[in-house]
Design brief:
The protein is of the alpha/beta class and about 280 residues long. The protein has eight helices and 15 strands. The strands form two sheets. Strands 1, 2, 3, 4, 5, 11, 12, 13, 14 and 15 form a ten-stranded mixed β-sheet that branches. A hairpin with a 7-residue loop joins strand 13 (about 220-230) and strand 14 (about 235-245). Helix 2 (about 40-45) packs parallel to helix 3 (about 65-75). The longest helix is centred in the N-terminal third of the chain and has 12 residues, at about 15-25.
């Protein structure tokens, strides 16, 4: 039976490319990719067993954490990260018209932010309109002379779209980390462990205690981000990645045990391998 993998659709997104690559790395033979509208929808597909897995972006080297993914993960603590993939991101400006005709630019909010400086210099008067995905933006500008999309170069395959500029991302080394989510924890030893926690109360030293528990085990934090708890102002949820390279096999369990009395809620998304793809 084919493994169903949900991803941020439609076809042609960076998430689709990541889904194929992660399926290959996990030896998933002939996966069936299921495009979803919105990141939360992709995550819900695996959390509610509509799909066997989901691939979503979790972090960008320019814009930081992907907030929709982080918020959804906190809502579904039964999910585990089985593998991560770092994908180079090179954005292209596509349109049916020419550059001097463009008055609106459409794309996913992350892509718009990653090309903000280029847009300010080359299309300063263009209205920026957010879409659910870069591929959706490409489809929405087909046939329009005054609209352009920021999308992957692969979207030039859509009928009528021409490449107006490439690459247009502000930072040449722009990269996004995608994760493969399942309801079962990976049994392989990983390079990274991801956790999320909230504190008992917002008092001086509470966060320091939690971070000290990580440091006292000799673990290096490769990422820390906060998100509002959505319960009250000033209350946050913290997402942390720790480096497990050259660590004892039991250190992940030791970490959870050390943090448990310090946290109101504590979630482990498991340990997993991280692969960097070095192609454009």
């Amino acid at each position: 039976m084919s493994i169903q993998v949900a991803y941020l659709g439609p076809e042609g997104t960076y998430a689709e490319k990541a889904a194929w690559e992660l399926s290959r790395l996990e030896n998933i033979d002939r996966p069936t990719l299921v495009p979803c509208i919105g990141l939360r929808s992709a995550i819900e597909h695996v959390a509610t067993n509509l799909c066997d897995a989901a691939v979503v972006p979790i972090e960008n080297s320019v814009e930081g954490g992907v907030t929709s993914t982080l918020d959804a993960l906190w809502s579904y603590p039964q999910l585990f990260i089985n593998r991560a993939l770092v994908l180079p991101i090179k954005h292209c400006l596509l349109s049916t018209g020419s550059l001097n005709e463009i008055s609106e630019v459409l794309s996913h909010p992350q892509a718009l932010a990653q090309c903000n400086e280029w847009l300010s210099q080359n299309l300063p008067n263009a209205l920026q309109l957010p879409t659910n995905s870069t591929a959706e933006a490409a489809r929405m500008v087909q046939g329009s002379k005054f609209r352009a999309a920021i999308a992957s170069r692969a979207s030039t395959n859509l009928e009528g779209l021409n490449e107006l500029a490439f690459p247009i991302n502000d930072v040449p080394g722009n990269r996004t980390r995608f994760v493969l989510l399942k309801t079962k924890e990976s049994q392989k030893k990983g390079d990274i462990a991801s956790i999320a926690f909230s504190l008992h109360s917002n008092v001086p030293g509470a966060l320091l205690q939690a971070l000290s528990a990580i440091g006292n085990l000799g673990l290096n934090m490769s990422r820390i981000e906060s998100r509002p708890s959505k319960r009250e102002l000033g209350e946050y949820v913290f997402f942390v990645d720790v480096d497990l390279k050259n660590c004892d096999d039991n250190v992940h369990n030791q970490l959870m045990k050390a943090l448990m009395p310090l946290c109101e809620h504590l979630i482990s998304f498991g340990s997993y391998s991280n692969t960097e793809l070095n192609i454009g």
